[in-house]
Amino acid sequence: MDPSAPQRTGRMSGSRGETATDAAQKYLGEGTRRMLKRVKELCLELIHPEGFLLLGGEQEVVANLRTQLPKNLDRRILENPSIFVEMSEPEVKKAAADGASALAKLRQTSLLEEITERAYSGGTGSLGAEETVRALREGRVDILALSRGFVEANPDMADQLVCDAFHQGADVRVFSADPASRLDAVGGGVAARLRYRWRV
User: Fold this and answer.
1) Whole-angstrom Cα distance, residue 23 to residue 51?
2) Does residue 82 sit in the same domain as residue 112?
């Protein structure tokens, strides 16, 4: 080959039929794949059993990462498209705090919907103080839910309910904002998800 002859542009030496653009895209694609694999590993390694993931950055990359994460994490993942690499530490902390607040609200709403559905169908759910107290006495409570308003208005009773719940190994959730208002409306500020239904 005459080195002085004009060379065809857009070709990579040794890569038959592959343009420089194709090769660059392949390189970037492989780099992205490796990065997402490592990010996935870090997410699964660092996430607390009761924690959440806040994802930000390019939407295409975030969407790709979500498809690689276990489906059982879906309710614990929030996306914030305003997050970017150059954010300061205080900005990241604020975004994380806002994300945690939004996720807590979603989880409270979901739990109340589950309890309400179970209670209305005669299943493993209780609404109201009287029914929930009975369930606590019988050791049937899995999760006790109280509204912030109920706790503030009935501190002694709330303390007793919480102690009884902890004594039988149940979790306790205190609702605030909109979920608390809904809990006040359907259960007077008290509800529970039960381990099993009492059979007469």
Assistant:
1) 40
2) no
